[in-house]
Every structure is written in structure tokens, then in C-alpha cells.
TrEMBL record:
Pfam families reported in the protein's UniProt record: T2SSE (PF00437)
Superkingdom of this protein's organism: Bacteria
Family: Belongs to the GSP E family.
Protein name per Swiss-Prot or TrEMBL: Type II/IV secretory protein
Organism, scientific name: Streptomyces xiamenensis
Gene3D superfamilies on file: 3.30.450.380, P-loop containing nucleotide triphosphate hydrolases
Domain Bacterial type II secretion system protein E: 86-365
GO molecular function ontology, one term from the record: ATP hydrolysis activity
UniProt-listed InterPro entries: P-loop_NTPase (IPR027417), T2SS/T4SS_dom (IPR001482), T4SS_GSP_E_ATPase (IPR050921)
Chain spans, region Disordered: 1-22
Length: 448
């Protein structure tokens, strides 16, 4: 049964008068079920067999002493009790539903999901704060983590790939909060073109830039599709190059044969053993990579990454959280200044001007679509203020409230300096762009 029909079924008047009664029935029969089963025998079964077995035992219990129920109500009750007994209770069907990309639980009474880019509240809730805490504890214990008053925040990746964040009272004022992000699907650039994120001309250009080993920063807000685009761009790196990826939670799915994936590690329960992104970026440079890919720069590791980019690891890629191409550069400068190596602010500009070649900006529109809104190349040098030249942009038509975002991609001549690098690498300039012949005449924007 798909999620929609399941939720729909739960909205129907179920066994008992209201949702409270429903939850009470589930709790009662969950208790009875757990009394009747042999846990040792259960643990020897596969998950599917376990579900089967629980359903059968519960069926017997209901026939023996259950309330009078319609077939639909009965199978719904069985489903919910078994889901609860097996694991994550009302979250189970949500986790099963592939169209859901994010589950957000704000205390026991509010469950939101993101589906196709849109967030909606579901008519579901946990029976109590205790029940939600039990579910949370079950989730975090699968990764040997603990959540309690002395350790009220947990960020972890499940063995199945989902990323889980938990924060509980007193830090969270709305009750225990649980956020589950499904392991992002790896989309190809062709799929992203189908979604309208970018067009075919942009794909050709980006492919050339990646193969010609320009350093590219993918910038965007939360959930704007940075990791997804980074993954698709990484797919264009020719096989045979030695690639080292560094991430907080390994999300990239590279298909090349020579890839080393590094993942940072939070401190353990005693607060020991932490390995930061920074440690990994530094370590990656000692691994003789052709390219370094940093999932997201958030702090001092930015300085190490910039150094890598300007010292022979051309063709490196990273994402940064920023709302425009200019902001991305200023943000890199701020992040790099967070390193414990104190580099004067102007010197960081020099570092960025020589390291970064291209910024690709992404936006998540109100209608849920993710769009590439700009490709900008750096036109500044040395310690000059950042200046960028737009080579592609998306111009949106005025949005009608609640409507979808329409618009079109525009392509501009590529600065000579970048075109030369493409030529040198044997890449074509895609026809939609052409080449700007004299870079001193280039129209640029300054970042301030
Ligand atoms: N171009 C796209 N079109 C449609 N959906 C997309 C696109 N890019 C990403 N998504 C979906 O949006 C969600 C967020 O994507 P992704 O993780 O790539 O974003 P992000 O910017 O890296 O997020 P974060 O800020 O959390 O790191 C995922 O469910 C992903 O499948
Ligand atoms: Mg990301």
C-alpha cells in the first residue's frame, strides 16, 4: 500500500472513536503481541519473516479477543501494531515511501514531509512524547549513539543512508525534534535538464569546464540541490583520475574506478575521537589526489581547500552555502578566516582569486523546483575586490502567487581567459555562448 492510501485509511474513522482511541488500541495490542511472542525465536528470522510472524500472531489475538472491526479496520490495526512492534512505528510507512525526501517531526503532534520539493503536514501524530522519544532512541541506538539530557543533540547517518538529526528538550522548546533526510538520489545531468534545473547548453559548458579542470564552487541555500549537482558534475571527471572526496555525511556517489571517499566523524560518547572535515582535507592532500572534492565547506577547512585548488589540484569541486555568486566568494573568505592559521583578510582574497575559477549558483524556488540561476567566472586577480562575469543566467518571469516559476536561460560570451583553458584542454566552446575577444572590455560585477 502506498503512503497516500495508507494515510487516507488512517483518516477514516478507525477502530474506536478518534485518533486517541486508535493510538490506545495500538498500544494495547502491541503489549499483548509482545507478551505472546518468543523474542529469541523472532531474532533468528529475517525482517520479512518477522513481520509475517507478528501479523499471524496478532491475527490470532484479534480473533480471540479483539473488538469487532471491518476488514479494512482490522488490517489497518494489524499494520500499525506490527509497524510499532517492529521498529519505527508511524515513521515506517513514511520511510518506505520513495517519493518522500525528508521527514520532519516537531514534537509528538506535528509530522511534516517533503515530497517533490513541497513540504506538507500529515494527519498523523505520535501517541505521546514518550513514544516519540522511544522511536528516537531506537533510531540513534542503531548507530551506537545516545540521546539524553547530557547529550541532547545527535547528527548521524543510518546504515541505510538516511541522515538523522535529533534535538530534544530543554534545547528544543517544541518537544523532541527529529529530522530524517533520505539518502539523496543521484540524478544525472540529463535528468536535471528534464527537471528544468539547467539546459543542454549549460550541460555542455559545465562538462567542458570540469574536463578542462577548472575549479568550481557550487553555491546555494539549504536544500537547493548543491550536493546533487556536485555529484552530477563529479560524474564528468574522466575515469582514471585519482579523486579524493571529503564529506560530513558521505552522500556523493561517484562511479569512477579510482575514488577514495573520506567521511568525518563526530566525537564519541566520552567526547573523544573526533575527526573534522578540516583534518580530512589536510590528509587528502597527502594522498596524491588529482582532484579533491569537498562536500560542503563550513569553516576553517576552506583555507586548506583553497590552497589545494591553487597548488596543483586543479579541477577541484566544492559546495558552499550562499545566496548569490558574490556572496559565495565573500563567504569563502569569511570561512577561510576561521582557520587557526591567521592569514590577513586581503591575502585571502588573493588566495580565492587565484584558486576559484567558476561559481555555479543554485536556487530553490518557492514552487519546489531547483534551478541553476547563474554561472559566473572570476575576473579579479591578486588582492583586488572580487569581480565576476556572468556567462549564463536564468531570468524568471513574474511569479503568480502559488504558481510555478517560468523563465529562460541566457548565455553570454565566455571570457577569453576561460575559453583559452577550454581550448588548451581540447574542449569546444558550446555554440550558444561564443567567446569574448577582449577581456579588458568584459562587463563584470564587484562583490561587496
Ligand atoms: N535539480 C533538482 N531537481 C529536483 N530535485 C532536486 C534537485 N536537486 C536536488 N533535488 C532534491 O532536493 C533535495 C535536496 O538536495 P541536495 O541534498 O542536493 O541539496 P543541498 O543544497 O546539498 O542541501 P543541504 O543544504 O542540506 O546540503 C534532495 O531530496 C534532492 O533529491
Ligand atoms: Mg548538501
Amino acid at each position: 500500500m502506498g503512503l497516500r492510501s495508507r494515510i487516507h485509511a488512517q483518516e477514516e474513522p478507525g477502530p474506536g472513536a478518534g485518533p486517541g482511541d486508535n493510538n490506545r488500541l495500538v498500544a494495547v495490542y502491541r503489549g499483548k503481541l509482545l507478551e505472546e511472542i518468543d523474542l529469541a525465536e523472532m531474532s533468528a528470522l529475517s525482517t520479512a519473516d518477522r513481520r509475517d510472524r507478528l501479523e499471524r500472531v496478532l491475527g490470532h489475538i484479534l480473533s480471540r479477543e479483539g473488538p469487532v472491526l471491518s476488514t479494512q479496520q482490522r488490517s489497518l490495526l494489524i499494520r500499525r501494531v506490527v509497524d510499532e512492534a517492529l521498529g519505527l512505528g508511524i515513521l515506517e510507512p513514511l520511510l518506505e515511501d520513495a517519493s518522500i525526501t525528508e521527514i520532519m517531526v516537531n514534537g509528538p503532534d506535528q509530522i511534516f514531509v517533503e515530497r517533490s520539493g513541497r513540504v506538507e503536514q500529515l494527519p498523523l501524530r505520535f501517541a505521546s512524547e514518550d513514544q516519540l522519544m522511544q522511536t528516537i532512541e531506537r533510531i540513534v541506538s542503531t548507530v551506537n549513539r545516545r540521546v539524553d539530557e547530557s547529550n541532547p543533540m545527535v547528527d548521524a547517518r543510518l546504515p541505510t543512508g538516511e541522515r538523522v538529526n535529533v534535538i530534544i528538550p530543554p534545547l528544543s522548546l517544541s518537544g523532541p525534534a527529529l529530522t530524517i533526510r533520505r539518502f539523496p538520489r543521484a540524478y544525472t545531468l540529463a535528468e536535471l535538464v528534464d527537471f528544468g534545473t539547467l539546459d543542454q547548453h549549460l550541460v555542455l559548458l559545465l562538462a567542458g569546464l570540469v574536463r578542462a579542470k577548472l575549479n568550481i564552487i557550487v553555491s546555494g541555500g539549504t536544500g537547493s540541490g548543491k550536493t546533487t549537482l556536485l555529484n552530477a558534475l563529479s560524474g564528468l571527471i574522466p575515469d582514471g583520475e585519482r579523486i579524493v572526496t571529503v564529506e560530513d555525511a558521505a552522500e556523493l556517489q561517484l562511479q569512477q574506478s579510482h575514488v577514495l571517499s573520506l567521511e568525518s566523524r563526530p566525537p564519541n560518547i566520552e567526547g573523544k575521537g573526533e575527526v573534522t572535515i578540516r583534518d580530512l582535507v589536510r590528509n587528502s592532500l597527502r594522498m596524491r589526489p588529482d582532484r579533491v572534492i569537498v562536500g560542503e565547506v563550513r569553516g576553517g577547512e576552506t583555507l586548506d581547500m583553497l590552497q589545494a585548488m591553487s597548488t596543483g589540484h586543479d579541477g577541484s569541486l566544492a559546495t558552499v552555502h550562499a545566496n548569490s555568486a558574490e556572496d559565495a566568494l565573500l563567504r569563502l573568505q569569511t570561512l577561510a578566516s576561521m582557520s587557526e592559521i591567521k592569514v590577513p583578510f586581503e591575502a585571502l582574497r588573493d588566495q580565492i582569486n587565484s584558486a576559484v575559477d567558476v561559481v555555479v549558483q543554485l536556487v530553490r524556488h518557492p514552487d519546489g523546483t531547483r534551478r541553476l540561476t547563474e554561472i559566473a567566472v572570476l575576473a579579479s586577480h591578486g588582492r583586488e575586490s572580487f569581480r565576476i562575469a556572468t556567462i549564463a543566467e536564468f531570468t524568471a518571469e513574474p511569479l503568480t502567487p502559488g504558481g510555478t516559476v517560468h523563465g529562460r536561460f541566457r548565455h553570454y560570451p565566455i571570457p577569453r581567459a576561460v575559453a583559452d583553458r577550454l581550448y588548451l584542454a581540447g574542449e569546444q566552446i558550446p555554440q550558444a555562448f561564443g567567446v569574448h575577444l577582449d577581456d579588458s572590455q568584459l562587463s563584470t560585477r564587484e562583490a561587496q
